[in-house]
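Hey L., structure's done. Input below.
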Amino acid sequence: MLGRTDVEILTDPSLDAGLIPITRSALCGLSFWKPDELPESRTEPLALMRVPPEILDMVDEEERSWQAREAAEFHEVDAILRGWESTGELDRRLAQLADWVERVETVYVFVGREVFSKSDAGSNTLTRDGRLADLRQRPLETWAAADRLFVVLAHCLFSSGRSVRFEEFNGVQLSATGLRHFLLERHANYCAAIGRLPHNPGGMPLPRLAEEVRALQNEVDRCSPLMRYRRINGLTFVKNEYLADFPLPRDPDVLPELVAHHGRVHLDVKPTGRVRTDLRSLATAAALLDAEAATGDGDRAGHGAIGELLAAIVLSAIHATESDYGMSSSVRDLTRLRGARPGGPEGVLTLKKGNFFCCCLPHTTRMAATGEETGATLWRAAQRMMYNRWHFAPGEFARQDIPDKRHYFFPPQVPDIAEHAEHHHGGHIASRVRFSIRAPGAQVWHPPFTVFGHGFRGCYDIRLVRMEGPAYTLRELHEAVRHCSLVDELWRTLADGMQDATLPVRAVGGFDRDWYMSKGWQRLSAHVLAADALAVPG
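Output:
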């Protein structure tokens, strides 16, 4: 094994002692046990591994060194818990943690051989199986070491970047030393990204280090030439953050030709070379056309001029990245976001899935093989995005403003690239999503998308899909981000005009089941233009 003749995998349980048992289980996956250690009864034996004794000696040496460091860090964990207990806030902290894990899709974290999980599709030891609720009923001194670690370290992770930080430890071991290493690495990377020298972060208590990482993260988002993004592994649920060299403003240098042509021909707007100014002119012209159509005898195939403009942006992103299909989703009617008071959540809380829409379009040639299934595939993807929009909508309001029974996730804030997304996710399986890109808006290097006094993130986007390989690269991620900048300016123009009463803004129509089943995308002017462009040799 591993190119060594002295490391062997064996299957005969009657062999001599000193072998490493290998087991598997539904909850823990593959596990290795110490020589002659009796595996837990919940596991299924797979094999035994013979390792040279000198290798086992080195493993013991490394383990002893790690345990000494972990024990030192554990003193701080225990001190934090005792502090919460003495001030009467331990129960509140547990309730808060139980709420936080519900704001992210999947938690699947190991502490030793203990599994701390929350998933609608898989195991849920934290809330459904009652692990956190049980801790609330028991004195602190009866808690297991794994529970003590998870409760404190999960709070530190949240402080460093909300619930999405949990996902960076999916499928791996969470320990006090591991968390400190993780936070120090983030601290160093963020300091480098903004050109600042770190000041002895290694001596900081874990909670303070986590808070400083969060503050540095915000500075990176606002002013660094490096952009935060995440890589998502659909097989393991892990979502790791990285920094990409992508200087601000991250807008296109010029309007993409498909969008510019649509503006010249259908909106009578000639580009000036100032991209956001041009997009604002296009959005204004489209809104005025829709207002005119609303008083006339036509509605531009239901999706309106705003829908046509958005479709031109989406289709441009699809072709620029050689994607099979792509989409952008948001709320149909901006006036539905109005609360009972400025910044209030009442309007958002009345929304249903049907109050959102998704403009999901195929590449003009790459989906030919799906034939008559194309409409159904796109509609399934669109429905999933409409549900996601509903799910994300309350995510930037204060927790006390959202009813306990209204489930929601924190909306995505940074771009991501995902691989093998079709292995666990039912919606991705149905829509054949193997490789994908998500570029959410409002982008974190810009102010939130503010409507009726409330700032939203993750309320519109550009999403791209490849049903087969190759996987996406940073080049395609950059293209998605640039196109999301256009979507961002589109929605800001509409919101500003609506709130200032300077622009009539009607709800976005179309993009419903009938639209997809009737191949509504073929009636889009941008689709016709893109198809004609591909038909021209050279």
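Residues 144 and 486 are 51 Å apart (CA to CA). The first strand starts at residue 8 and ends at 10.

-- N.
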